[in-house]
Specification:
The chain is of the alpha/beta class and about 325 residues long. The strands form two sheets. The protein has an eight-stranded mixed sheet, sandwiched between helices. A two-stranded antiparallel ribbon has the order 1-2. It folds into three domains: about 90 residues, Winged helix-like DNA-binding domain superfamily/Winged helix DNA-binding domain (Arc Repressor Mutant, subunit A); about 100 residues, 3-Layer(aba) Sandwich (D-Maltodextrin-Binding Protein, domain 2), CATH 3.40.190.10; about 110 residues, D-Maltodextrin-Binding Protein, domain 2 (3-Layer(aba) Sandwich), CATH 3.40.190.10. Helix 2 crosses helix 3 and helix 3 packs across helix 4. It is built from 13 helices and ten strands.
Length: about 325
């Protein structure tokens, strides 16, 4: 044991006066007035006077000299003033340091990079404008994060329809339709699906899952009554957003996912050379964690997502 701690442990316990008496003494000693101390503490003058008397009785000494319309500290009062003032100031500083700050209002979610970049982020200012006190934290990843372990409020999951319904969160934000999309300059050379043979295929790298580069085209190929897709070359990207950017730049044809790319189609940066798309049997579903179900801002965010999705449809 440290020598100072041993010395403190050997001292006899001394009962301290109640804190409210010490606060009244500190105010009266500082102002040398029971009346001004009472105003400062929102007490009556008689209440402060009684508290000082109680403190003096517990200590067995006088702390003030009561003069005509004036107060003066005794020697004992001066000793107590220095100790009490210093102790209360230390308590105030310590309280300010350890008192927890008000919890920040936050909505934390996870979604795919494609959903974040192509659909969520362009609309997010509408939520933040309506909820300026709420911080939104987006974890855009292809990994399927555990909401409870990652301390997330919600996820927007891109899954097959039957998987989404199994999440127990109701209908999808929207179901996906797919169709070939390209820049207008590329579309000029595409009169029929066979013309795709002269174009570059823009796709994401599916080698980790052992899937073909054209796996996302299959619903559209079935709709068109086509078999295998043959194209001049293939450009593979790690993320769907990069493949879309290449399509906008006129570097080939990408399988377009609607409504993710609807804004690009509406603005004319991408066009559909072969008409309508095919339903892919996949969709974007919202899953709430237990934490999210207790977070009023997260529930507001889900309502906002559904309203935006309805408008997008």
């Amino acid at each position: 044991m440290h020598p100072e701690n041993a010395k403190a442990a050997s001292r006899p316990a001394v009962e301290l006066p109640p804190l409210d008496l010490l606060r009244s003494f500190e105010a009266a000693a500082r102002t040398l007035s029971f009346t001004r101390a009472a105003d400062e503490l929102a007490l009556t003058q008689s209440a402060v006077s009684r508290q000082i008397q109680q403190l003096e009785a517990s200590l067995g000494v006088l702390l003030f000299e009561r003069r005509h319309r004036a107060l003066a500290l005794t020697e004992a009062g001066l000793v107590m003033q220095r100790a009490v003032s210093d102790s209360l100031e230390r308590l105030r500083d310590a309280t300010a340091r350890v008192r927890a700050a008000p919890a920040a209002r936050q909505v934390a979610l996870t979604c795919t990079p494609g959903f974040a970049s192509l659909w969520l982020i362009p609309r997010l200012t509408r939520f933040t404008a309506a909820h300026p006190q709420v911080d939104v934290r987006v974890s855009a990843t292809l990994d399927v994060l555990d909401l409870e372990r990652a301390r997330l409020d919600l996820a927007v999951r891109f899954v097959r329809i039957e998987q989404g319904l199994a999440l127990g969160t109701g209908p999808a934000l929207f179901e996906e339709a797919v169709m070939p999309l390209c820049a207008p300059v590329v579309a000029q050379a595409l009169r029929r699906p066979a013309d795709l043979a002269g174009q570059a295929l823009l796709t994401i790298d599916n080698h980790k899952h052992g899937e073909a580069a054209t796996i996302d085209w299959e619903p559209w190929l079935r709709l068109m009554g086509l078999g295998e897709l043959h194209m001049k070359s293939t450009l593979r990207f790690s993320h769907y957003t990069d493949a879309v950017a290449a399509a906008v730049a006129g570097q080939g044809v990408v399988i377009g996912r609607l409504p993710l790319l609807r804004d690009l189609v509406r603005d004319g940066r991408l066009v559909s050379p072969f008409g309508d798309g095919a339903v892919s049997q996949r969709g974007q579903f919202v899953e709430l964690s237990r934490r999210g179900q207790r977070n009023a801002d997260a529930l507001d965010f889900v309502r906002w997502l559904r309203a935006e999705a309805e408008q997008a449809r």
